[in-house]
Design goal:
125 residues; mainly alpha; globular
Length: 125
């Protein structure tokens, strides 16, 4: 029942975390649980934005197995190969895909900031 009440399925959340992890600098780790803030932003954005987000995350997950020698889904790739896969998406000839990825990056950054603020508020209380 949880998958019907939340904007992110477990599979989409796994891909989302792997996209965020691939964007981090080398040697750093993702330390914030930003999915609740990301889901809140999606709820605020509406059903259409949630569907676009879901479609993009599914496309990214499948694109990891296209064109790479290992033929594994995006979430199963090592970080460096995930970075290469995202770079391919960023340089896609499809303007809509590039724009949707930019929106996804903005939402991830906003959710990471919100999660960090929430954590600092909880620690100061």
């Amino acid at each position: 029942m949880d998958s019907f009440t939340r904007p992110l399925s477990k599979r989409a959340a796994r891909t989302l975390y792997n996209v965020a992890d691939a964007r981090l600098a080398k040697g750093t780790r993702l330390c914030e649980d930003f999915a609740p803030a990301f889901e809140a932003a999606l709820r605020y954005s509406g059903v259409r934005a949630a569907r676009r987000n879901w479609a993009l995350l599914c496309w990214i997950e499948r694109s990891g197995s296209i064109g790479l020698r290992r033929r594994r889904p995006f979430s199963r790739l090592p970080r460096e190969e995930r970075r290469l896969a995202l770079a391919r998406v960023e340089n896609s000839r499809f303007r809509g895909i590039r724009a949707a990825l930019g929106v996804l990056y903005e939402r991830i950054d906003g959710a990471l900031r919100a999660a960090a603020e929430e954590r600092s508020r909880a620690q100061s209380s």
